[in-house]
Amino acid sequence: SNFMYFQKSVLAALYSSEGSVMERHHFAQAIAILNTVGCNIFEKFSRKDYQRMLDLIRDIILATDLAHHLRIFKDLQKMAD
């Protein structure tokens, strides 16, 4: 993410204000796929469940940002103790 920011990439221009540039791009691509006719595997969900699913997908994708790895790892260690 920092690499994209310092390279002044188009993706960084689109997503850097929120951090996790690549992860936010991946989430945006997932949404784009879901918005493609015939590709929304959640189309039968209620509006509430659909939003919850999108929130979950976003959170899971954002959790893959290695910039947050140490914090997440420490939290997991505390939970395991």
Automatic annotation (TrEMBL):
Alphabetical list of Pfam families matching this protein: PDEase_I
PDEase domain boundaries: 1-81
Regions crossing the membrane: none
Gene3D superfamilies per UniProt: 3'5'-cyclic nucleotide phosphodiesterase, catalytic domain
GO MF: 3',5'-cyclic-nucleotide phosphodiesterase activity; metal ion binding
Alphabetic keyword roster: Hydrolase, Metal-binding
Keyword Ribosomal protein (UniProt): no
Biological processes, Gene Ontology terms: signal transduction
SUPFAM superfamilies: HD-domain/PDEase-like
PANTHER family hit by this protein: CYCLIC NUCLEOTIDE PHOSPHODIESTERASE (PTHR11347)
Name the UniProt record assigns to this protein: Chromosome undetermined SCAF15204, whole genome shotgun sequence
Organism: Tetraodon nigroviridis (Spotted green pufferfish)
